[in-house]
Write a structure and sequence with these properties.
Chain A is mostly beta strands and about 400 residues long. Chain A contains five helices and 21 strands. A five-stranded mixed sheet of chain A has the order 5-4-13-8-9. In chain A, strands 6, 7, 10, 11 and 12 form a five-stranded antiparallel sheet that branches. Chain A has a four-stranded antiparallel sheet with strand order 14-15-19-18, with no helix packed on it. The interface between A and B is large, with 76 and 76 residues.
């Protein structure tokens, strides 16, 4: 499939699978593909509608956005957004009647099964938020932790719309006493014959996260795509991807964290090479982070003269105050300018630094500062899962100017 | 093609045309289509990647977003955005090498032909803006002006990224003296044997519009789709669609308005039934406007009880101050709440009013107020072109609650 992007006659080929007949090739991909597009694995059928030239396909369930494909318009369109699934998605038939999807709400005074149609009457909020895989940046850790070697592209900034979880809780009489966690359970099918807890996608986050959480049926102005968790996704702004439960079928307010392996012995910050222990910190809130997206010398040296160095910066749960750019790998810094509208503290911001560069070799880096005057770390300590890498030095990229 | 949305076996069929082989069917459209999707004309091949269930196809060059398909996430994704082309688009091969597209800049001290690659070095700005056809709402005028009977859907809110026109002007030595207009010329192919001025897409706007204008190469985080003017579009925030020149090949700062028919005797506000005169007001800045998008009784009565009445409001060039909603056709009003991030004065805002409705018939309306305390008009005077309809009464929609 390496000539796929170049060959008009192949653009119409579907990757097959009866349930996936709706999948389709990316738009205008032929015309937009750079002449030197590198060979890459094909998009799997269930996301064949993604833009092939904009993504790196690691495996069928791990697909990231190319660093050069983020653009400068703040939001990440669905067809460029990364994919990371812990289990295969439920059958696509679950989005045939989106309003009929049911979520069981527990740990409230009046527990109830609610359909999406019910939820749509209970409130409406719209939040722009960074969605980022816990392992984004894993590829930059020196200890080479196992797992997908994500670079920067297991992240995107999207706009979610749905009902605030606090509205739902209020409508069901409020929380039962003693809840310390909000626990979401995904609707994936569990293979028969194994302990469900060993594979099920069920995550607990601290109860305070409820304040900003949504049960979302819409992403970027469209029903949440099935591949991204539609008909209904639990969105926990500021928390890494795994906590944002796809096809959420149960939302429970619990005294204890989930007993699922993905919670208990997965997604923990552990010393390099060590197994995760339930007592170690869970991968919850994301970190202050930024990186440069352009220009790049991917297609050859950049022309000497004025260039617009640009990238993205995120405060995770806090607003941003400042962003600096370095062209010498962090020896000297210049303050850059945020570009475009501020979509709120959970979104990322684009930034730009116009700078004149003479021919030579450069190392582009950025470091963000949040509203509480915290600076992005220079380096994130290695950890066995390769989680939450947000150090600015690891994210620096070389640039050749001629 | 009326069964298209219902028939999995047809989802993979391309509409044909060698140059359009990159076009593809909309994603997940099968699964998302409501069971009672009405019969409708098929999407033409050049926009076969649009979501068929989200649009109304009037003709091959006039396609609007369904009122119920705007959602509540503020932005309008490319695959739901309306299409209105005055001339057939240039061949899709113009986006094969986007950076090589050339725009001639005239009326500056150092006129120059600039490539998109040149423009990308000259500055970067990102602006969210409503893109709206001058004739949006034409279908609601009592005088039945000729032209497409748009309802609300020849509009969308998108995020543009590109270089500010003022940067380009500064880089070319500033304006020549005496300029009163910014004139953009589209790259459409003019049929042989006719006076180019009779059909060419060339529009002049007052020079002050330059302050906010962009030469944009990106829309919603992706290269501007060919169907929406890529590789390069002149974006004039706050000005109606026709002034936002697609495939812009010439940008001139001129003493006089263009001599093209589309400027001189087109897009003017004229008395009903009368031909446009060059002395009449040109269709430039848009109007303060809002409308309700949901809930609707399209698929049957809405259930009595709490409902979330929602819609969009735009200040055109001014920030919004307030939005009111009526459920009795304007006899009484209640202030609604803006939802989600404010993307700036050129964008629209979503709003919501939670309200308990008993069984009965309702007429939903909204009226917006801008930062200068202007209220949206109750009615827009009929005009022969059917332009700029923004009256709240014409945009009211009935709702049946059972």
């Amino acid at each position: 499939m390496k000539t796929r992007a170049m060959d008009p006659s192949r653009r119409g080929l579907l990757a097959g699978g009866a349930a996936l007949a709706a999948a389709a090739v990316g738009r205008e991909a032929l015309a937009q593909a750079p002449a030197a597009a590198p060979a890459k694995p094909a998009l799997p059928a269930y996301v064949a509608w993604k833009s092939p030239e904009a993504v790196i396909v690691h495996t069928a369930t791990t697909i990231e956005t190319r660093r050069s494909a983020f653009g400068t318009s703040i939001i990440t369109p669905a067809d460029r957004l990364y994919i990371r699934n812990n289990l295969p998605a439920p059958d696509v038939s679950i989005v045939a009647n989106r309003d009929a999807w049911v979520v069981n709400v527990e740990g409230v005074r009046q527990p109830r099964a609610l359909t999406v149609a019910d939820l749509k009457t209970m409130g409406l909020e719209t939040v722009a938020a960074v969605l980022q895989c816990s392992g984004n940046g894993r590829g930059y850790f020196a200890s080479k932790p196992s797992g997908t070697k994500w670079q920067v592209g297991a992240a995107g900034c999207v706009i979610w719309s749905g009902v605030p979880v606090r509205n739902v809780v209020a409508a069901l009489g409020g929380l039962e006493g003693g809840a310390r966690f909000m626990t979401g359970t995904g609707g994936e099918t569990i293979p028969a014959g194994i302990d469900p807890r060993s594979v099920m996608v069920e995550r607990s986050v601290p109860l305070k996260a409820m304040e900003d959480a949504l049960l979302a049926w819409e992403m970027n102005g469209e029903p949440v795509p099935h591949a991204h968790g539609g008909p209904l996704r639990l969105v926990v702004p500021g928390y890494s991807g795994v906590n944002n439960i796809k096809y959420v079928k149960r939302l429970a307010f619990t005294r204890e964290e989930s007993e699922a392996a993905i919670q208990k012995t997965g997604y923990r910050i552990s010393p390099p090479g060590q197994k995760h222990q339930p007592t170690e910190p869970s991968v919850w809130e994301m970190e202050l982070k930024s990186w440069i997206n352009g220009p790049t010398s991917e297609a050859g040296p950049v022309k000497a003269g004025l260039v617009q160095v640009h990238g993205v910066a995120m405060g995770a749960t806090r607003a941003l105050r400042r962003i600096d750019v370095s062209v010498d790998g962090g020896q000297t810094w210049q303050e850059a300018r945020f570009v475009g509208p501020d979509l709120g503290r959970f979104a990322w911001r684009q930034f730009v630094l116009p700078i004149r560069l003479a021919p030579g070799e450069y190392l582009l880096a950025s470091r963000a500062q949040d509203a509480q005057f915290n600076w992005q770390a220079e380096a994130t300590p290695d950890n066995s899962g390769g989680y939450l890498n947000s150090g600015w030095r690891a994210h620096a990229i070389p640039l050749t100017v001629a």
